[in-house]
Amino acid sequence: GSVPPPKSITSWFTSKGLGKTLDEVTVSIPHDIYVFGTQENSMGDKEWVDFLRAVLKDFTEIEYRPVAMQSLWNIKVVVLVKPEHENRISHVSTSSVKTGIANTLGNKGAVGVSFMFNGTSFGFVNCHLTSGNEKTARRNQNYLDILRLLSLGDKQLSSFDISLRFTHLFWFGDLNYRLDMDIQEILNYISRKEFEPLLKVDQLNLEKEKHKVFLRFAEEEITFPPTYRYERGSRDTYVWHKQKPTGVRTNVPSWCDRILWKSYPETHVNCNAYGCTDDIMTSDHSPVFGSFEVGVTSQFVSKKGLSKSSDQAYIEFESIEAIVKTASRTKFFIEFYSTCLEEFKKSFENDSQSSDNINFLKVQWSSRQLPTLKPILSEIEYLQDQHLLLTVKSLDGYESYGECVIALKSMIGSTAQQFLTYLAHRGEETGNIRGSMKVRVPAERMGTRERLY
Q: For the Inositol polyphosphate-related phosphatase domain, which residue ranges apply (predicted)?
């Protein structure tokens, strides 16, 4: 809380401390990208970036380059990258959202950064949500506001919230979710390093299970003690009484500080470390770290110019069926978006629909209602890394009732493949969608490639 950091914060950069940490060999390998999220950080923006770069220079001997810095009050996010990757990064965008009283006052909210690394899109959100044991519903609302209002990534994807705009989205910060258990019981479990019973009463886990927040986000298993609220200057004691102008507040030890992520299907992401430092004591929180290995796709350059239509790959749909959460009985259509398409495409309205339940509608399209999509490149290696985003919209108000993402990788071939996935809208699961499709790649495009990395 508004105290300068200690001289050495290397343990935070190298994932050293408690929980899942990196082994001695991996620790010494500099990462390609470092992303830092802080709350209640009173240092100036430039001063903070310079400080982080100096720490990195100190132990990696590399001059990391700043990609982006975004701050809102004292909530800051900084992205630094190895110099050799600087020219691989494009489409950088930043945004912030206030979530105070009436969305204006106070010091709570979120900052975000997004960019492309070669052909892969990344989003990073650092947030500070409402505090207080009893404020779970307010925290959930903060999350939904940020999801809806943070303006990052490709502006053409405005029909999709940020949880679907990126190949990989990382969301972290002081989420402030608490443990619903008696203070003495919590302390007893912590002293015995028994975290399992505590994780069962962790508000974030409970709200996630109820699909209230962080729908389909992943989090690595927590094997480190609660990171809040410590006595400053030591990590031996939790302090759970806090004097406020309104009286004494009880802060039970909790995992307030978290890292979650959400990646497109059939992509590579591995969490190699998730823990907290035990030697940085200037704050009443312990800093949390995560280390990830993420696959990035290469910039693709076609060897062959498109000479004739027989060289063209096609994405064809045989049928699609969606079950949508709605009491309305209007007609629906689907919009298809992808970086592999020159522009988005629309289906015709559905040709049949039925309902067994007043709150849900089954909507069906046959191949006649569905467009054939032409990717901008037809090489199989390119198409294997592409994804389609779909949004199901009503004809009467053009409003989306659900969005989803489909990986093309397992759809490539001469016979149609089945897909099935969930639909979500504004952070809520709203139904599911299934269908039959194929990505037809001409024979001469099955093995030509030139990758620029």
A: 1-302
